[in-house]
Specification:
The structure is a homotetramer. By secondary structure, chain A is mainly alpha-helical. Chain A has helices spanning 13-38, 47-67, 75-98, 104-128. Chains A, B, C, D: Pfam families: Csp.
Chain lengths: 129, 129, 129, 129
Amino acid sequence: MLETYPQPISLDRVQLASTIDIIDDCAEACTACADACLSEPDVAELTKCIRTNLDCADVCATTTRVLSRHTGYDATISRAMLVACVTACAACAAECGLHAEMHEHCGICADACRTTEQACRDLIAAMDS
Amino acid sequence: MLETYPQPISLDRVQLASTIDIIDDCAEACTACADACLSEPDVAELTKCIRTNLDCADVCATTTRVLSRHTGYDATISRAMLVACVTACAACAAECGLHAEMHEHCGICADACRTTEQACRDLIAAMDS
Amino acid sequence: MLETYPQPISLDRVQLASTIDIIDDCAEACTACADACLSEPDVAELTKCIRTNLDCADVCATTTRVLSRHTGYDATISRAMLVACVTACAACAAECGLHAEMHEHCGICADACRTTEQACRDLIAAMDS
Amino acid sequence: MLETYPQPISLDRVQLASTIDIIDDCAEACTACADACLSEPDVAELTKCIRTNLDCADVCATTTRVLSRHTGYDATISRAMLVACVTACAACAAECGLHAEMHEHCGICADACRTTEQACRDLIAAMDS
C-alpha cells in the first residue's frame, strides 16, 4: 500500500511498512493478552498487566495511524508518538514478562512488545540520522 | 495468540483469527488510502472517498477489538459490530471502486474492503449456524 | 463546532450535537468503570463487566467519530453504528446494573449507558422519519 | 466518575478530571474540523490541516484513555503520552491557526488545541512536582 502513495516520503518505505506491521501486531497481541488475563483464575494478580496491555494497545494503535500518514508530514508528532510507543512497549514487556512462565499469552505479548520497542527505536534513529 | 486463550471460545479459532487479521489489514488500508487521497492533485474529487475511508478504518478497528475479546462473550455485540463492518466495507469498496482506475491505492483498498465484507458475512453465518 | 460545518447536514444539528456529547461521556464512563472494576477487591466477579465496558467504550468512540463526519454522508454507516451502539450500551447497562449496589462506578456507568442507548434510538428514529 | 475510583490516585482528582474533559473536547473538535475542512471549496489548501487534525484526534483519544486508568499506574506512560499530546496540539494549533480567519471551525479548533496543550503542560508540571 505504501508504494502507491503519490508523493515523496521522508522515511524509507520498506522500513516504515515493516515497522507499521510490527506495531500493528503488537496492538493486537496486547488487546488479546488483556482479555486472556481477564479469564485467568488468578486475574487478581494480573490487574496491572491488564491495564498496561490496554494502554499499550491504545498507544500502538495511534502510533500506526500517525506513521501511516505522510501528507503534510510533521516529524515532531511522529517522533513523540514513537517515543510514547517505546515507553509503553517497554513497560508492557516488563510487566508481561513477570507472568510469562505462568501464562503463555503473557510470554507472546512480552516478545511482541520487545520487538516493537526495538523497531520504534530503529525508526527514531533513522529519522534522526 | 488465540490458541493461548485459557477458556473455551464459542467460535472456530482458526476462522476467528483469520477474520481478525483480514479486518486489521483493511483498517490499515483505509487509513493509508485516506492519506494517499489527501495527497492527490484531484483531492477535491476524493472527499467522499476520504470520509468513507476514515469511517471504515474506525469501524474495522473497533470490530477487531470486539472480536479479540472472549471473556464474558455477548454474541449480540459481536454480531452488531460485524453488521456495521459489512456495511462500512461495502460502502468503502463501492466508493474506492469508483477511483480504482485512476488511483492504485483506491483499487487496493476496494479489494481489501470486499475481502473484509465477505469474511465478516462468513463469520456472521458461522455465528448463526 | 457543528454550527461551523460549511454544508447542509441531513440531521438536526442540535439533536446531533447533543447525541455526540452523550455518547462521548458514555465512552469515558465505560473506560473509567473498566479501570475502577480492575481495582476492586472482587475483580474476579467483575470480569464480564470489564469486558463489556471495554467493548462499549470502543463502540461509543467509533460512533461519535462517524456521527461527527458529514462530508459524503452515507446514512447506512451511521445507522449501522447507531444500532451497534444501542446494542453495546444495552448490554453494558445490564451488566453494570448487576453491580450498581455494590460499586458506585457501575451505577453511574449503567446510567450513562441507558441515556446513550435512548439517545441513539431517538437519532435512529429521526433518521427514519 | 473519578471520585468513585476505589484506590488512591497519585494525581489531584479535580485537575485530572478537568484535563481529561479538555483533551476529550479537543479530540472531538479535531475530528469535526478535519471533516469540515474536507467540505470546504478550498480543500486542496487544507490537506496538511486535515492530516494534522486526524493525528491530533487520535493522539488526544489515546491520551484521555491512558489518563483515565489508575490501576497499576505507570507514570512513564502517562508522561510520554502527555508529551505527545502537547506536541500534536501545538502542531495542530499552529496549522489550524493559519486558516482561522478564513474558516471559523479552524479558529475554534486552534483554540481547543491551545487550551489542551496548556492543560497537558500543567499536568506534566504537577506530575514532576
